[in-house]
Design goal:
alpha+beta, 5-stranded mixed β-sheet
């Protein structure tokens, strides 16, 4: 099942991150060990619509639609535009730069958000945005 939404072109990155996590069991366990959090993403497109995905690096090492796994809360939620998320996963900008310019809002444990960078770097090699 694809996580990509046509309304949010950058959401293809969630498929790339998920396939990266699912393709190598050792890599998934390593990502869970390093991440140790549920990362929520709320993207806003040009039409002003929002949608959410999460990356569970606390329990299963999976990516899915929604704000968090059923019955759980995200440890940290990152809110940004679809365009900025595309730039972030393609390596054209850094999360810190987006945060400092007010384009990235972080709710929850800000320190956990810093552990997201290596996972996004893995997606850069697979995502074609």
């Amino acid at each position: 099942m694809s996580l990509k939404s046509d309304l949010f072109p950058s959401s293809a990155a969630f498929d790339a991150i998920n396939s990266s996590l699912q393709s190598d069991d050792a890599e998934r366990k390593d990502a869970v060990k390093k991440g140790n959090a549920v990362f929520g993403f709320t993207l806003k497109n040009k039409e002003g619509q929002t949608d959410s995905w999460y990356i569970d690096l606390k329990n299963k090492g999976e990516v899915a639609k929604g704000e968090a796994p059923s019955g759980k809360k995200a440890d940290v939620t990152l809110s940004l535009s679809d365009d900025d998320f595309a730039k972030l996963v393609s390596g054209k900008t850094q999360a810190q730069r987006l945060f400092m310019s007010g384009k990235l809002k972080i709710k929850g444990d800000v320190m956990k958000a810093t552990k997201m960078e290596p996972v996004l770097k893995k997606a850069q090699t697979k995502a074609k945005l």
